[in-house]
Amino acid sequence: MKIEKVIVRQIRMPLVHFFETSFGRTLERDIVLVEAAGEGASGWGEVTAGENPFYNEEWTESAWLILRDYAIPRILGKNLSSAEDVAPLTEHIRGHRMARGGLEAAIWDLEARLNNRPLWHQIGGGARREIPCGVSIGIQDSVPQLLEKIERELAAGYQRIKMKIKPGWDVDVVRQVRERFPSIKLMADANSAYTLKDAEHLKRLDAFYLMMIEQPLAHDDIIDHAVLQSKLETPICLDECIRSAHHAGQAIRLRACGIINIKLGRVGGFREARRVHDVAQAAGIPVWCGGMLEAGIGRAHNIALSTLPNFILPGDVSASRRYWKRDIICPAVETTPRGTIEIRDDPGFGYAIDHDFLREVTVREVSAG
Question: Catalytic amino acids?
Answer without folding.
Answer: 164, 263
